[in-house]
Amino acid sequence: MKYIGKLLYIIALGISIFSFKPEKSLNVVNVTEFSAIPDDGQNDATQLREAVNYCKSSPGTKLYFPPGIYNFKDEKAVKLMNGILNGSIKGNPSDSIFRPYYPYVKGLNFDGTRNVIVEAHGATLLCEGWMEPVSLTNCKNVKIEGLTIDYKRKPYSVGEIIEVQKEWFDVKFSDLYSVTANMPLCRLHIWDVKSHRMILQDLNYFPHHEMIAPQTLRIYCKLNQDVKGNIVTIAHTLHFRPAILLFESKDIEIEDVTIHSQPGMGILGHRSENIHLNGVRIVPVAGQLMSTNTDASHFTSCKGFIRYENCLFEGQGDDAINIHNYYLTIIKPTGKGYNLVSKAKLHAQILDYPDVGDTLELVTTSGLEVVKKVVVRSRENNIEGLYSHITLNEELPSDLENFYLINITRLPRVEITGCSVTSNRARGFLIKTRNVLIEHNLIRESTGTGIQIGAEGNWYEGPTSENVIIRYNSIIRCGTGAGTIAGSCGIAINVDAPNKFLYGLHKHITIEGNIIEGENAKNGIYVSNVEDLNICCNEITGCINPIKIDIR
């Protein structure tokens, strides 16, 4: 019976995927009509914004970009970038620029757009200054097709390791990257030039450094091996805005879009519904090794479905795909109801909140165990205070400090098929939702576990998962460094909480027909906390324990 249920789930997921269907024939508008001319070396920011504003006021438009490079320079964004690269912002830049409602520059702001296609095959938006290049907020039935996003000055620097000593190493930077003694070195990645692979190193964040010659820095941290002659990439911030933001948007299709770099994540969706990523490429530009500074894609508090199809991810500074909701802290104010506060680092830097009628799970902070479900009767947001005041259909326990609430109405169905992940930091796919199909993907040489299904109390991200099928994937030489879960190179199912081993938190998990190749990994597949587990017909090599079932 459980297999019939899973089959019905797959069928239901398949028929739910939409194709972009404009209500009527589209009015085609060329960006050249607004004097945005490709390859002319001029700043096209004003002209392209005018074209986008036309789309906002004209539903049923196809906005066409002729192939070529469109320079997009914004002085406020340049000032922010230069301030960080010159060291004017002290410490970790993310602490200053990655805060809720921090003012930032939006490139192409499609706020409120309806029934629009952007057709931009062969067109590159070359950004100058740190910004959010494409903003899809409050949009419905919008398709972005063929656009490439890149930065004139990458948000990272690249150099060659020319000397290694016990306490330090020297890096000679390419002339493409003007370096200063004061620029922040937020996170370092080392790449083996022979294998074209990010390699394991126990490097510190924000290491002390000094300039010892033009374009040459001495970096004071220890390397675990002789890596002289290899390449180092240094991100100058960990987090900022994404290349493409989806917020409060529905029926969005991103097709054949390429993102080469971004001082933050690639694609970020929050409180959005029905998202289809088809042929998306978040990869380094030719000749480079790094793409986005952090996650290639990240979705929070969404619903409906999220589908990835034939996407390619390479060289990003964190997970390729991360999908979850948030565990919210509960505070009892004077009077009726409760205040919900997120202690998580909100990825969109926008308040997370439930809608009236949403179902929330009450879970223990100690083990993320579900206690009961409640329904939101009213909600009032306090943006300045960063909390939501809600009333529920019933009272909660008095010892609120022992519980979280998490919104299970906003849990998208997920399908990831035909995608490829290569040489990134952390995991390939990190999934914290329900009703998931992951099949026919390749994950190669991620530093972390290839696929993780897990609830993470320390990150306030969940919930526990149900109805997950992981099949016919190839996971090759992963799990050698950051993001490796329980020593597993291939697949890990776990819960991260003070009590890590409560039985049955994850339910109905199938792991079937996968190829997993480790490099003397501790585990190929690691599973804990699962009720109704089916592991079958996987080919696992290079692992001390091919399968580790840790049920206590």
In brief:
With 552 residues, the chain is mainly beta.
Description:
The chain has 552 residues and is mainly beta. The chain folds into four domains: 2-153 and 239-294, Pectate Lyase C-like; 156-235, Thrombin, subunit H; 340-407, no CATH class; 436-549, no CATH class. The protein contains four helices and 46 strands. The strands form four sheets. The protein has a 21-stranded mixed sheet that branches. A twelve-stranded parallel sheet has the order 1-2-5-8-18-21-24-33-36-40-43-45, sandwiched between helices. Strands 13-12-16-10-11-15-14 form a seven-stranded antiparallel sheet, with no helix packed on it. The longest helix is centred in the N-terminal third of the chain and has 15 residues, at 2-16. The chain is globular. The chain starts with a helix and ends with a strand.
Q: Helicity, in percent?
A: under 10%
> How many separate structural domains?
4
Radius of gyration: 23 Å
Overall morphology: globular
Biggest pleated sheet: 21 strands, mixed
Show the helix and strand layout:
Blueprint: H1 2-16, E1 27-30, H2 45-57, E2 61-64, E3 68-73, H3 75-85, H4 93-97, E4 106-109, E5 114-119, E6 123-128, E7 132-137, E8 140-145, E9 148-151, E10 156-164, E11 169-173, E12 187-192, E13 197-199, E14 209-213, E15 216-219, E16 231-235, E17 244-247, E18 250-255, E19 258-259, E20 267-270, E21 273-278, E22 281-282, E23 297-300, E24 303-309, E25 312-314, E26 321-326, E27 328-331, E28 338-341, E29 359-364, E30 370-382, E31 387-392, E32 403-407, E33 413-417, E34 420-422, E35 429-431, E36 436-439, E37 442-444, E38 451-456, E39 461-462, E40 466-471, E41 474-476, E42 488-496, E43 506-512, E44 515-527, E45 530-536, E46 539-549
Parallel strand pairs: 1-2, 2-5, 3-6, 4-7, 5-8, 6-9, 7-17, 8-18, 9-19, 17-20, 18-21, 19-22, 20-23, 21-24, 22-25, 23-26, 24-33, 25-34, 26-35, 33-36, 34-37, 35-38, 36-40, 37-41, 38-42, 40-43, 41-44, 42-44, 43-45, 44-46
Antiparallel strand pairs: 10-11, 10-16, 11-15, 12-13, 12-16, 14-15, 26-39, 27-28, 27-32, 28-31, 29-30, 29-32, 30-31
